[in-house]
């Protein structure tokens, strides 16, 4: 009897596992890669606990300052004021971040870093409010990467052009424009601008002909949005990944047809009613988030019949019914379509 009970229990536990293996699993892959910005948290935690007790964390536990010297030695610093004693001339990489809200970083510290860290190749400043990004007073031929996230910056100085070696620039700030001198950063390959307040697409970007990754996102809750893209994308022939999200785009320019290396695009959270023909015609596309657009069923259905690429197609938050989604998947038999409630 015990033997029968054992096999019955084993069957009940393992049956769902085998059923899942047998059925076609279609869990969505990870979302498109974007610039990741560490979330802010308050100094108090535990407010949602059962006893509503709050625990105040030491400021040193919420501040992270990590440096790597030119000889490979790793340095961890717990307090901002300790940066004043650091020999910046020997620093190759520097990351300064905090999880404290409303924390400011003295502009003099940033100026000191840019003036003295003549071997610095990578700089990250996250979640610290910065009054303004300091002037780059001399040409810098070493700094290759800058990440400025959640600093409340609205402008970048014209002297940014002195960073002649810059290859990767990312910002998570309400920038309203890029300086004209940005066009001189000819070595930039990756540009990510999140939470922007651009009213127009910055045309200075079209001077950066080595760009392979370009991502621009507006403020989701803001009223200032990019409404159209210039017909100049043929000037960015190296683009492999392109995204313009949280904007008000409803069409794409014909110059997209010249992007022969483009493989990943993201035009989620826009105003498209149909799938753009310039994207449908690109046979090299393989990863296409197109979520949260006000798609019109009949027009959209006709537009996807022109698609020549294969890959992953994300169509969440469109308002379509499950039956409509299933019809889309039948038309796009060689494409994996991901949508709301697909596993229900």
- Report the span from N to C terminus: 39 Å
Number of strands: 15
Helix content: 10-25%
Strand composition percent: 15-25%
Uncertain ranges: 1-25, 31-58
Helical region count?
Answer: 6
Helix and strand run: HEEHEEEHEEEEEEEHEHEHE
Overall mean pLDDT = 86
Structural class: alpha/beta
- Main sheet strand line-up: 4-3-5-6-7-8-9-10-11-12
Q: What would you say this structure looks like, in words?
A:
This protein has 344 residues and is α/β, with parallel strands linked by helices. 17% of the residues lie in helices and 20% in strands. The strands form 3 sheets. It has a 10-stranded mixed beta sheet. Strands 13-14-15 form a 3-stranded parallel beta sheet, covered by helices on one side. It has a two-stranded antiparallel ribbon with strand order 1-2. Helix 3 (107-116) links the parallel strand 5 and strand 6.
List keywords for this structure.
20% strand; disordered N terminus; 10-stranded mixed β-sheet; 344 residues; 17% helix; alpha/beta
Q: What is the structure about, briefly put?
A:
This protein has 344 residues and is of the alpha/beta class. The protein has helices at residues 2-22, 59-62, 107-116, 277-280, 297-304, 322-331; strands at 44-45, 55-56, 63-69, 74-77, 91-98, 122-126, 145-149, 168-172, 190-196, 213-218, 241-245, 264-266, 287-289, 312-314, 336-338.
How do the helices and strands line up, and which of them pair or pack?
Layout: H1 2-22, E1 44-45, E2 55-56, H2 59-62, E3 63-69, E4 74-77, E5 91-98, H3 107-116, E6 122-126, E7 145-149, E8 168-172, E9 190-196, E10 213-218, E11 241-245, E12 264-266, H4 277-280, E13 287-289, H5 297-304, E14 312-314, H6 322-331, E15 336-338
Parallel strand pairs: 5-6, 6-7, 7-8, 8-9, 9-10, 10-11, 11-12, 13-14, 14-15
Antiparallel strand pairs: 1-2, 3-4, 3-5
